[in-house]
Amino acid sequence: MKLIIKVLTTSVLVLLISHFMSGVHVASFTTALFVAVVLGLLNLFIKPVLVLFTLPITIFTLGLFLLVINGLIIILCDNIVGGFDVDNFFTALLFSIILSVSQSLVSLLLGDK
């Protein structure tokens, strides 16, 4: 049940953020649901591999390179999901930061652990 709530809140956040950011376009709520699911799967399977391969540069930048990896995950999701469009890398980077902070705030408000 928690997984369904998390996917639904992520899809609502994707819609809200895309409404306020000019470089992010989401066609519908169904597209936002697909974006939430694909982002979850990419973060589960692809992100750990990227983090492992870029570990030296991540250590050298004191973890800031993880923001670049998050932006790359958003770009990859843009290429996978039709109806979800991010204009450029810097927009994806800003989108990933805003989405992460929003998810943390919603998780804090809902009392998830």
From TrEMBL:
Parts of the chain that traverse the membrane: 50-77, 89-110
Organism placement in taxonomy: Bacteria, Pseudomonadati, Bacteroidota, Flavobacteriia, Flavobacteriales
Annotated organism of origin: Flavobacterium plantiphilum
Highest taxon, organism lineage: Bacteria
Annotated signal sequence range: none
InterPro entries named in the record: Phage_holin_4_2
Keyword tRNA processing in annotation: no
Protein name per Swiss-Prot or TrEMBL: Phage holin family protein
Keywords: Membrane, Transmembrane, Transmembrane helix
